[in-house]
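Appendix B, record 7
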Amino acid sequence: MFEYLQKRKVWLIYVPLTVYWLILFSATTIPTQKLPSIGFNDKLIHFLAYFVLAVLVNLTMIFQRKSIQLFEKAPLATIIICLFYGAVDELHQMLVPGRSAETLDWIADAIGVVFGVFVVYFLINRLGYRLEYN
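C-alpha cells (predicted):
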C-alpha cells in the first residue's frame, strides 16, 4: 500500500491536500449569516476539520522527497504548520462579518491536529510499515 501511495502521491495526497485546504479556507470566509445551522457543537467541526488537515499534511511530509529534514521531523512539522494556520485562520475570522476568533476553537483545532498525527503513525506501525527516506 505504501508503494502504491508513493507512486501516486500527487493524485492521492498532494491534490487532495490542496483541494481540502482551499475548501477549508473558503468555508471560514463565509459570513455566519450565510451558513446553515449545524445543530451541534462547532468544536467537533473544528476537531474534524483539523484532524483531516493534519492527516493530509503529515502524509505530504512523509511522502515528499525534497527534504530529509521534513521527512524526519514530519510529526513536528505537521503540528507546527497546522497550528500556525489554525491561529492565522482564527485571526482572519475576526475580519469576516458575524465571525470571531475563539481560543476554544483553536484548542479544538490543536486537539484534532495531534490526533491526526497520532492516527497516521499508529496506522503505519499497526500495518507494519517502516518509514525510510529513499
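Remarks on this record: The radius of gyration is 16 Å. The chain has one domain: 2-30+39-126.
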